[in-house]
Fold:
Amino acid sequence: MRRIRRKVAVVGAGLTLFMRRALETGKELSYYAASQALESAGLRLRDIEAVVVSSGPDAFDGVHMKGEWLSDGAGGYCKPIMRSYVGGGSGVFSIIHGWYMVASGMFDTVLVVAEEKMSSCQPHPQGAFLTIFDHTLERPLGPNLLWIFALEQSRYMHTYGISNEEIALVSVKNKRNALNHPCAQVAAELTVQDVLSSEVVAWPVHRLMVSPVSDGAAAIVLASEHVAKRITDKPVWVEGVGWCLDTSYWGNRDLAYPRYVEYAARMAYEMAGIREPRKEIHVVEPYDPFAYKELHHLEGLLLAERGKAAEDLVNGRFDRDGELPSCPSGGLMGVGNPIAAAGLMKVCEIFWQLRGEAGKRQVPGNPKKGLAQAWGDLMQIGTVVVLGR
Amino acid sequence: MARKRESSPQNPHDVGRVMREIPERPRGTPLKDQDIREGKVSLIAWKPHLEYRWDSGVAISRFLLGLKEGKILGVRCHSCGRTVTPPRAFCEWCFRPVDEWVELKDTGTVNTFSICYVTWDMKPLEIPQIPAVIEIDGTHPRVGFLHLLGGIGEKDVEAIRRRVRVGMRVQAVWKSPAERVGAITDILYFQPLE
Amino acid sequence: MDEGVAILGVGVTPLRPISPELSQRELIFEAATKAYIDAGTEPAEIHSFISISEDFHEGTSITDEYTPDQLGAILRPVHTIAGDGLQGLAAACMLIQSGIADLVAVEGHCKTSNILNHEEVFAMALDPIYERPVGVPSHAIAALEMRRYLHETGLPEEAVAGVVVKNRRNALRNPLASYGASLTVEEVQASPLLASPLRVLHTSPYADGAVVLIVASAARARRKGRKPVWIKGIGWATETPWLAERSWGRATYTVVSAQMAYRMAGISRPRKEIHFAEVDDTYAYKELQHLQALELLTPQEATELTRGGDFEGPLPVNASGGSLGMGYCFDATALYRVAEATWQIRGEAGSHQVPGARTGVVCSWRGVPTTTGGVVVLQAD
Structure:
């Protein structure tokens, strides 16, 4: 096992509303989230030594080198600021990026800001995804983002005999959980029938199985051990990090199982000293931009048997008061999906859950270890962080 | 209707509820479509004109030339023994140049498919598109690429699903030789062999 | 740095104005293969991979998708830094120092020739509300900086032309360079004005290329039995994204970066302790501005140096030919310069070897309209 040089703690978190369309610019949203995170940590910007900024495709904002543009809103003026980028996995990767900056000994305090303003992209934010495909072999076919997820969901259902009723239940659970989230965009009390009655956008995907397009920002403050102990009684430690990227040739891959998520999880578990994840992880925020992805990811995270997550879901195992609460925040299906911000929102949720500060969303049992995961690129990358107190 | 019951806890003109829960800081201001329509907010528009011309390189250039001749080409790596398509100059597993070009059949098997009823900007499609991952015959392990299924002649989900299934055998339908330009669209679509 | 990090391997493709024979992935595969051989390693031994890219430079959204295959990094920890090459190198250093990796590959690439309208890409980097509608071209922003720099330092325009003469002549000796030329100050100053006082020959021409560096922990570097080049200090910073707010006359980002890198490297007298420099010269005046921010030369000394055009002078700057002589390839530029510095310190720079090159500095800039750059101090074993 690798010897990690320094312990790193999360000491503050902040979140804006997630909204279909925000009045604020991306810089302003970043500032809102960053200033909340600083305030919750009891720090000022001058206490911050370095900044990580995280955001999805530049095409959303129509701004080239978006990390540069966001830098002042994210608190990076005249500071070492850096943007890491792994598509949809960026939000959870941003804490990993901040973690290695502090763990290296180079910085004691790092502000991590994740922002997404999708609404600027007209006529529809999906336009930003038209150019994610291979320019020579795929774009001429006119693919859109729904295709690839529908293709993956279809293969997942076929391989394990999963029904669309079971997939729809993810939407129901998460949108219900989100009713207790003050930042939620699409919280609702729905039934499985409601979800299946919503129109088919790309079979087997129905409209209510897809997360919305959103604007929003999230931020956290990371600190080295000696700083964390000085400024808070309730540090939440980054115990494990993992990330893994699979081949670009997605047509050459097994779409039924996210092997890259498993590898990322194994990397994080090894660092965290976790041998039995199903027993040792108490609360989890898997990435759920599409309803099936939550199940797919719970399997990749080794928190459910392969092909059996749907069964666990139906049996209530992933409810907020279940054996392993999954997406107690309401997830992307309920809170919203400003891509990078949504990933970091999941980290914020685990932070609040472990500190017992999640309010009405608090899961029972005094959780000690939690996991947040995101995923992105061409169904290709897994990013995983294990937090503990 | 599900749509009616999908509610939001936010109200742009009443942030009080939100502010009571997290009182310290502003958290953003949701706009409604109406706010835009009525000109309550100012907007700046910019239409990008970004143009690129990508070098296809060794492997994809030859693949495209093959398509022009009505052939699907693949490559073989003698180190791992895989035959794959789309072709690549190097084996990404063995990290060495591939050894051999092979001509594959233009038949294959549906790995997965979808029936898509919307355009990228969420406009409804009268005739759905059926994207699929096609495993091309002669590759090992069975791998392939994205293309469309066609020649199904149905519109609704159930009717299409009666004709199309995972594991179904398909064959490429090509443009006429005169129309082919050396592009992935030289294959119009794949149609059922059964 | 208190726990050593070293450059162990370098692989590059020659910088060329166009590269139609290879796709981007194929170009990177070539650089990666060379780097692994140079470091005496193979992809399976590498713990983490970093790719440097920006979407609009590639014409692809989420460019991270297309990074792993050509590095031999399938199902491995790979991430993209949407930033400068030196930011990517800094990320590699931090991964190693955190203890999570002993060997990291850092990759940068550029197919500038595949972008058909560079001005539009540039325009997209301006603030869409306040700055873009003004319609200011990229070179005009550089011209504004150049004007203010000359005003503050009292340097003549000929000093800037001297940089061009020196760098393009140096490039004649560098087989990787594409734009070597024998020019005079008069010829440079006779080239057409782009935006007064900036002239065509003051700007670096574009080039395509790929570069991969293998970075190692001290323990791993020793075990490999190669000649490590130590990364003694590294820093990077962004001043401000606003045109209206930047310090036009001086490179504040370099000042902040240099302070960070020098402190880490324990360098208190850079002029005495540094033997050569590879400094960003995207525009010729930037070389002088950066040298000043690096505390390596006063503007007057810089003028003298460039007038001589002799890289065997007291401080050889851009013996490689710089971007003016090699070609400019966006964020990969910094990694090419680190590669150059590595060869210099190893004594492998061939016909443009700087004698006695033991400690060198590389200074980068992300180009207009950014105020972002980095500084790294490299040293012989």
Q: What stands out?
A: Chain A has a mean pLDDT of 97. The CA atoms of residues 17 and 183 of chain A lie 4 Å apart. Chain A has one domain: 8-122+212-388. Chain A touches chain C through 70 residues (CB under 8 Å).
